[in-house]
Design a protein that fits this description.
With about 270 residues, the protein is an alpha+beta fold. The protein is about 15% helix and about 25% strand. β1 and β2 form a beta hairpin.
Length: about 270
């Protein structure tokens, strides 16, 4: 029996109840079959700390981030250590960087053979140049370098155009080609592939002369030669020796007079060499 005090508390007024007797549990509790599996599974916190130690990020940084409950994503090169995969919660996930696909911008590539020219194929460049337009409309910038040098050593002795005549001494003479210094007997080369259309004596001061037709109105001439080694109708290739330099005809010394003709008219050879 109990009584209530002024403060509202109850006070026991009878004998205290007997305590409950203790019951001894002798039987063993059944073993949890999945306990070992759960213990073997690494928690997100453990995954973060293991990764920090393996990748050099630092255990302190990994522990601090994991303690905040934030998701930690670390990007490392594909050649780095093996990353742990998260089989549980998404927090604390670690992923390796995925290399992006590289795509080229839209580009138009022309594989047409006529559009491919290289420095190793100068005759191909010349054929393309002559075939693309009339030879008379070819600009100096386009023709530059399309012909090869007729001598191994090119040293200008007298340029193309008006000059004082070395024979008469008169002014205003038009020089139809370019003179290059060369000792008599120096090898003279074909400036490009073509067909020999003339070999012999030139009646207008050129002396022994060779003319090569390169097609589409383009010709080259080689003058004052001591001798020639080709004949009319012969096919020659760029660089072939066609003659030897000399001083025949209207000449004051051993040299090569080289001309370039477009549709029968002489032009400055330097625009093609």
């Amino acid at each position: 029996m109990t009584t209530q005090t002024a403060r509202g508390r109850r006070r026991a007024s009878g004998p205290a109840p007997e305590p409950r007797p203790a019951v001894a549990v002798m039987a063993d509790r059944p073993r949890d079959a999945h306990r070992d599996e759960r213990r073997g599974r690494r928690s997100p916190f453990r995954q973060v700390t293991d990764f920090a130690a393996a990748s050099g990020v630092g255990q302190k940084a990994g522990i601090a981030l994991a303690a905040t409950g934030l998701v930690l994503t670390v990007t490392v090169p594909a050649t780095g250590p093996v990353m742990a995969t998260n089989t549980g919660s998404s927090s604390g996930s670690v992923s390796a960087a995925v290399q992006p696909d590289v795509t080229a911008a839209d580009a138009k590539i022309d594989f047409n053979r006529t559009a491919i020219t290289t420095q190793g194929d100068p005759d191909g460049k010349l054929k393309q140049l002559l075939g693309a337009q009339s030879v008379g409309s070819i600009t100096r910038a386009a023709s530059s370098g399309s012909l090869g040098p007729p001598l191994d050593q090119m040293k200008t002795a007298s340029p193309f155009g008006y000059r004082v005549s070395p024979i008469t001494g008169g002014s205003g003479e038009f020089h139809r080609g370019q003179d290059y210094s060369a000792q008599c007997g120096t090898a003279v080369h074909a400036a490009a592939s073509g067909t020999v259309t003339f070999t012999g004596w030139h009646p207008y001061g050129g002396g022994n002369r060779v003319v090569i037709d390169h097609g589409n109105g383009l010709e080259t001439t080689y003058n004052h030669l001591s001798s020639s080694s080709v004949k009319v109708g012969q096919q020659v290739s760029r660089g072939d020796v066609v003659a030897l330099s000399g001083t025949t005809g209207a000449s004051t010394g051993c040299h090569l007079h080289f001309e370039v003709m477009v549709n029968g008219e002489v032009v400055d050879p330097t625009g093609w060499l």
